[in-house]
């Protein structure tokens, strides 16, 4: 199916969604010189010819969502302000796509298959305000990727398998306000030392269900005592398997209005007394739905952290004091510009808490997936870990039951043998 035509040159709004169009040719819209908005969503477009929109000099919005495109079209009009290409098959954001005079403000590539972003992919886009890249396959943010983007306000990198943020990946972003890196479920994420400076202007920082990323971020904050975020108002740390937080976090977040901690297995010992005091003295909101609860020590298990008395915060375990929020040895031995946080494997999981956390996390994930139009999201390792823990426990119980049954059987035979012996002795003596 091809684009119907010809159309009058005066048409400003042309919507061709939900058709069977497979290709866009140079001649399809060449006479519609007044076109300002073009919608081609939910077709079967797999090819857009070079300069297909070159004559549409007044085009400001182009919607290509839900097609089969593997590349961003080249030769787009310089007046184009918004380009939406969600739910396609784009793998790479090539360099040189946009000219130096491009006026693009919003680029949306959600739910594609983007694997990498070249350092000059966004060069020349001086007016780019929003970059939306959630639910792709990005594993690494390279040096120079988001450099000198003076107008960038919102960057969404949520739901990517991110493993590494290299030095100078976030530099000279004076307007950046909203950074969403939620649902990065990798448990081992390295962050360059200069990451904190790169996001110093951010007002909203989203790390929900990003355990490796959140812990690496907190390690950087703890290491850089005296550093502060003058603009940061909202921090989302929900469902990140956090047991404690660095005490200098309070001093770093000088403008904080909300820091959500839902779904974290907090260890309420002396390391978190500062947090309880902060909760009592400030008007900051510390949760979205459920107040932060203690998962230990057992004396305060499942109690609200804020409700504890100062005397109920016991001493931190010696191992916790020595290793509290310290990077793994191999991370310290690696590049001096990076820090790596790894999940601690030596602590026995609290199965009940993990199951509760998993349930709440699943609810959040269902809401997220609905918003993402039912695109499959990565599952993470919590369920597997819980099944493994429960499976080991069940096997142990079966083994113990078998051993107990064997002991009971042996004892029964011994008793019968003794009774038989006494019986024969009595019979012989009577005869």
Automatic annotation (TrEMBL):
It holds the Pfam family LRR_8. Residues 350-382 have a biased composition (Polar residues). Keywords: Leucine-rich repeat, Repeat, Signal. It comes from the Eukaryota. InterPro entries: Leu-rich_rpt (IPR001611), Leu-rich_rpt_typical-subtyp (IPR003591), LRR_dom_sf (IPR032675), LRR_TM_domain-containing (IPR050541). GO terms for cellular component: plasma membrane. Residues 299-309, 318-329 have a biased composition (Basic and acidic residues). The keyword Signal applies. Residues 295-382 are annotated as: Disordered. PANTHER family: ANTIGEN BSP, PUTATIVE-RELATED, CHAOPTIN-RELATED. This is Leucine-rich repeat-containing protein 15. It comes from Magallana gigas (Pacific oyster). The lineage of its organism: Eukaryota, Metazoa, Spiralia, Lophotrochozoa, Mollusca.
């Amino acid at each position: 199916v091809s684009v119907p035509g010809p159309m009058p040159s005066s048409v400003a709004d042309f919507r061709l969604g939900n058709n069977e169009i497979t290709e866009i040719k140079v001649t399809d819209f060449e006479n519609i010189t007044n076109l300002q908005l073009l919608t081609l969503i939910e077709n079967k477009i797999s090819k857009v010819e070079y300069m297909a929109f070159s004559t549409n000099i007044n085009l400001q919005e182009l919607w290509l969502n839900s097609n089969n495109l593997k590349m961003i079209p080249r030769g787009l009009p310089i007046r184009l302000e918004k380009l939406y290409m969600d739910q396609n098959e784009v793998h790479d954001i090539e360099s040189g796509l946009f000219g130096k005079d491009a006026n693009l403000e919003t680029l949306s590539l959600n739910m594609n298959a983007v694997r990498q972003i070249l350092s000059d992919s966004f060069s020349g886009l001086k007016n780019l305000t929003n970059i939306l890249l959630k639910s792709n396959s990005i594993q690494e943010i390279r040096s120079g990727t988001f450099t000198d983007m003076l107008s960038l306000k919102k960057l969404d990198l949520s739901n990517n398998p991110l493993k590494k943020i290299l030095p100078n990946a976030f530099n000279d972003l004076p307007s950046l306000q909203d950074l969403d890196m939620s649902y990065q479920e990798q448990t081992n994420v390295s962050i360059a030392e200069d990451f904190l400076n790169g996001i110093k202007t951010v007002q909203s920082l989203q790390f929900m269900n990003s355990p490796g990323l959140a812990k690496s971020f907190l390690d950087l904050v703890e290491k850089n005592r005296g550093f502060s975020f003058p603009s940061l108002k909202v921090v989302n740390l929900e469902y990140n398997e956090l047991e404690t937080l660095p005490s200098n976090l309070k001093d770093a977040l000088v403008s904080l209005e909300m820091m959500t901690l839902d779904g974290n297995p907090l260890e309420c010992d002396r390391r978190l007394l500062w947090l309880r005091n902060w909760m009592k003295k400030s008007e900051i909101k510390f949760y979205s739905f459920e107040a932060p609860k203690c998962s230990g020590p057992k004396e305060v298990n499942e109690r609200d952290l804020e409700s504890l008395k100062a005397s109920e915060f016991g001493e931190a375990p010696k191992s916790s004091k020595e290793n509290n929020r310290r990077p793994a040895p191999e991370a310290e031995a690696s590049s001096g510009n990076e820090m790596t946080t790894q999940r601690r494997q030596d602590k026995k999981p609290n199965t009940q808490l993990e199951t509760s956390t998993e349930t709440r996390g699943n609810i959040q994930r269902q809401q997220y997936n609905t918003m993402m139009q039912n695109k499959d999201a990565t599952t993470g390792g919590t369920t597997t870990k819980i099944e493994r823990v429960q499976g080991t426990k069940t096997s142990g119980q079966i083994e113990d039951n078998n051993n107990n049954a064997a002991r009971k059987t042996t004892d029964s035979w011994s008793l019968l043998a003794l009774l038989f012996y006494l019986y024969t002795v009595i019979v012989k003596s009577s005869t």
